[in-house]
Amino acid sequence: MTQYLPTPDQERVQLEKLLAGNERAFDFFYDRYSLPVYRKLLKMVKVDVVAEEILQNVFIKVWEKRHLIDPDKGLKAYLHQIAQNLVYDFYRNLAREEQLMASVKHAIGNAMTEDTAEKLLLKETHQLLEKAIEQLPQQQQLVFRLCKQEGKSYEEVGELLGLSTSTINGHIVRATKKVKMFMFQIDHIHFSLILPAVILLMDSKV
After folding, report:
1. Do the domain assignments include residue 93?
2. Are residues 179 and 191 in contact, defined by beta-carbon separation less than 8 angstroms?
3. Span of 115-119, 135-139, 144-148 with lowest mean pLDDT
4. Are residue 78 and residue 130 in the same domain, yes or no?
5. Which residue from 136, 183, 198, 170 is spatially nearest to 38, judged by alpha carbons?
6. N-to-C CA span, the chain
7. What DSSP designation does 73 have?
8. How many structural domains comprise the chain?
9. Is the distance from CB of 10 to CB of 53 less than 8 angstroms?
10. Structural domain contains residue 102
11. What are phi and psi of 75, to 5 degrees?
């Protein structure tokens, strides 16, 4: 099903409901704006799992900060401003994580070669990722594997399963959150170190 954008009158009515805390109004905007915002995010961060996580955070902030929305200005510009700010935050955090990873690699350099360490990390992370995927509900697991492991696009998976791209995106966002939470709970001490490997595996055909 193709997403369509609301008319100004429709948007204003739904914005007023959103300001009043109406969850259906929130769903209304998620259904219509999530895919355009996701595509914009993907162009900015280049990694789909990162774009999906930022997308989720964009709409969380919309809900939490809904009292700041001006119905006269609409939601589109507000959404893109939040998305842009979160992308800036992502790159700032990524720079700090890269510094951390460089320090970790240097610290373990005396015990094993960098190549051996990375292969071991990827192997262990892949095994943990598979366990996490197996915990997902059946349809989320199917969508996750088709998109993440077989490399199919949201449109291809949507046509295959008879679902809209926004529904596919919703499954991916929820599945990704559950996978990361599972891995964090299993090995919370080392999760910050394996996160780059998690992103690599989620963005590859494995």
Report:
1. no
2. no
3. 115-119
4. no
5. 170
6. 29
7. T
8. 2
9. no
10. no
11. -105, -25
150: helix, coil or strand? coil
Q: Which two tokens stand for residue 81?
A: 């401003």
Q: Residue 121: CB partners within 8 Å, gap ≥ 6?
A: 193, 194, 197
Give tens-digit pLDDT for 138-149.
999 899 889 888
Q: Which amino acid is at 105?
A: K
- The two tokens of residue 92 are 């700032």
Q: For residue 145, what is the DSSP state?
A: I
Q: Can you spell out the DSSP letters for 157-190?
A: HHHHHT--HHHHHHHHHHHHHHHHHHHHHHSTTT
pLDDT tier at 10, thresholds 50, 70, 90: confident
User: Which residue matches tokens 């959404």?
Assistant: 79
The answer to whether position 38 is within a domain reads yes
For 21: left if phi > 0, alpha if psi spans -120 to 50, otherwise beta; the answer is: left
Give the distance, in angstroms, between the CA of residue 205 and the centroid of all CA atoms in the same chain.
17
In the three-class reduction of DSSP (H, G, I as helix; E, B as strand; rest coil), residue 110 is classed as coil
Q: Rounded to 5 degrees, what angle do the CA atoms 59, 64, 65 make?
A: 95
Q: Is-contact 186 175, C-beta < 8 A?
A: no
